[in-house]
Structures are given as structure tokens and as C-alpha cells.
Amino acid sequence: MTVLEVLQSTTAYFKKHNIENPRLNAEHLLANVLERKRIELYLEFERVLTESELPPLRDLVKRRAEGEPLQHLLGTVEFCDHVFLCDKRAMVPRPETEELVEFLKSELGTPNSEILDVGTGSAVIALSLAATFPDAQIVAVDISDDALTLAQENAARLSLAGRVRFLKSNLLENVEGTFDLVVANLPYVSTQTRDTLSREVLHDPPLAVFAGARGDELIRQLIVQAPSRLRPGGMLALEIGIGQSEALFSALAEENYRDICLKTDYSGVTRFLFARYG
Ligand SMILES: C[S@@+](CC[C@H](N)C(=O)[O-])C[C@H]1O[C@@H](n2cnc3c(N)ncnc32)[C@H](O)[C@@H]1O
After folding, report:
1. Pseudo-torsion of CA 72, 76, 81, 82, nearest 10°?
2. What's phi and psi for 29, nearest 5 deg?
3. Please, which pLDDT band fits residue 111 given cuts at 50, 70 and 90?
4. By the 8 A CB rule, do 113 and 136 touch?
5. How far is the CA of 33 from the centre of ligand 1 (A)?
6. Residue 218 contacts by C-beta under 8 Å, 6 or more apart in sequence?
């Protein structure tokens, strides 16, 4: 079979298995097996695949059709122009979180700010900010040892190992000092909705997805804890779940935060909450 034929048949197979963006998935997997950039496949449409190239592709295609996330199969994910290692030790970073980071890049007042990333996962937020702000001092915490190991591998891979201090902590329990910015993309999915989630999401660690029966429990706890770690006028930046904005807005107001504002993501969902304290 040629490259083009393989792409066409894989795309059809993915469509049948309800995979979103079937052609794109097919291209990524084939490029991975052939060790090419995806775009280079377009120059090789007529190339015939060798016998040794087909079995590894078949394996990846089968696993993808069964719902394994593309990023796990590739082992990497692109986030804010950097390539991060990605596997089952932490949540697959989402495009919405890239929007959060882009917004923070434009909002961060002083380039030598002290920043705390809570629930860092693979450290996409902490390391993207570290790469953009070479003078910023960044602490990143997570409750999961697996996530912290992956985060440190990512830091080393991006030559940013000395730039972020990683710490195991249940929310802010082990955090010392004060910060200009506390950013968090904590788990915000309700355990009650487990049956409605996509097959891909079920490959994320449950600790990274679920917070409790409501979904916003951990975010609420952070809203209460963060003032003790924010400098006067410091900002709390939160990624939140669908339908959680009103209640969390009120929670911030009750804790005397000011300048509380909501922001929608590109798909129009109210996805981010920002507030200052003191
Ligand atoms: C939704 S994932 C986000 C990961 C990463 N920040 C991102 O945006 O891709 C949430 C992360 O919070 C961590 N987490 C869950 N409960 C926590 C807690 N009580 N304290 C600190 N981290 C927690 C999980 O281990 C997971 O890595």
C-alpha cells in the first residue's frame, strides 16, 4: 500500500470508530511510524510502505480506534510552541489551558514575578511560563508522584530544570512564601458524570480529572487557601469546568477577592476565572 492509500483506509477506519479528526489522527500516527514530520507525508504519497512499517502502524491504529489518546500513542504533545512528554502519568494537556497560558503571558505585570502552579501535572503551565519569563521564579506543586516525575522529565527535556521548583503538596499544604500569581488547572469534573465522559478522558489519571460529587470542590478549597500565599494585589487564575462560573464567582466574592473576572475560551465556554487579593 502507498502512503496515500494507508491514510485513506486509516481515516475511514477511524471514522467508523467515531474518532474526532480522523484524517489528522491517521497522519500523525503514520508520520510517527515513518519518523517523518506530518507535513512531509504530502511529499511521499506514492511511496509504498515496507512490510516492516505496517505492523507497528496497525498496532497504533487499533489502539487509537479503541480510544487511547493520540498523545499517549505519540508520547508527546505540543503546547504553547513547546513539545512535552505525555503519557498516562498525567493528564493530556488541553488546548483551553494553552489559552490560559497565553492570557497570563499578556497579563503578567513584572517579568520577575513569583509564580505558583497548583496541580502542575506534566508542568505545561509552569514550564511554558518559565520559557517566556526567564526572570520569573516558579514553584509547581502536585499531589501525584507520577505527575511530578513526568513534570521533571519535561523540565529537563526543555532545559528548564533549574527554573521551576517542583514540590509534592496537597493543594498549598507544603507551600511556603508568597506569590504574585497563583495559577491552577485543578480537577473539576464531577464524579457523577463519569459515565458520560469520552473514552479518551478515561485514560487520564482519575486524580487529574475528578474532584468530588460537585466537581468544584478542589477549586473551592484553593480559593480559601490562596489568600495566605498571595502578595497584596496578587492574582489567582483558575481554569474551571462548564457551568461552574457563577458559584465560583460567588465563592471568590465571599472570600473578599477583588477585580473578579470571567473569561470564555475559543468555543465560547466560560472557562477561566481571575481575581486579585489584597
Ligand atoms: C486537570 S490536571 C491539570 C494538569 C496540568 N496543570 C495541565 O493543565 O495540563 C490536575 C492536576 O492536579 C493534580 N491534583 C489533584 N488533586 C490535587 C491536590 N489536592 N493537590 C495538588 N494537586 C492535585 C492532579 O494530580 C493533576 O496533575
Report:
1. 130
2. -70, -40
3. confident
4. yes
5. 31
6. 119, 171, 186, 187, 188, 211, 212
Q: What is the pLDDT of residue 108?
A: 81
C-alpha cell at 178: 508568597
Cα–Cα dist 260/252, whole Å? 7
Give the number of the atom of ligand 1 that is nearest the alpha carbon of residue 79: 9
Span 153-163, pLDDT tens digits: 999 999 999 99
pLDDT of residue 110: 77
d(C-alpha 116, C-alpha 142), whole Å: 11
| Cα-based distances in Å from 5 to 73, 86, 205 | 21, 29, 36
Query: Looking at ligand 1, which residue's alpha carbon is closest to its atom 26?
Result: 208
Residue 48, pLDDT > 80, answer: yes
| Ligand 1 centroid to residue 99 C-alpha, Å | 17
Ligand 1 atom 19 nearest Cα:
170
Give 176 Cα–ligand 1 centroid separation in angstroms.
19
Helix H segments across the chain?
A: 3-16, 22-34, 54-65, 70-74, 95-107, 124-132, 145-157, 206-209, 217-225, 245-254
Query: Ligand 1 centroid vs 118 CA: distance in angstroms?
Result: 7
- Checking if the pLDDT of 62 tops 80, the result is yes
From the number of C-beta atoms within 10 Å of its C-beta (0-12, 13-18, 19+), residue 227 rates as middle
The residue contributing the CA closest to ligand 1 atom 11 is 119
**CB-CB contact of 217 with 245 (8 Å):** no
Query: What's the grid cell of residue 19?
Result: 474518532
